[in-house]
Amino acid sequence: MPWKNNAQVSAPRNAATGGKAPVKTIRLGRVKAAVWENETDKQKFYNVTFARAYLDDAKNWHDSDSFGRDDLLLLAKLADQAHSFIFEQCAQAKAAPGE
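^ that's the sequence the OP posted. Answer follows.
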């Protein structure tokens, strides 16, 4: 398949975060969103990374940050779900006593 030749392998996400896991992973088919929690002295904030899983010729799974036409609607739905999750986390933090 021609798309396999154009796929870019992304670095493992855990390496970039010092081994820290995402607080939430949402999947739709082979496309996933990972929600990462970060903290400063003053507040928590969230970032989201997106990846598409693919199988190489040697039958090994990899993640790519490249998306095809058929992935885009799934990507939009995942972005919406990640957005809702982050807003829920922020609302819970505001409602928690002592914060």
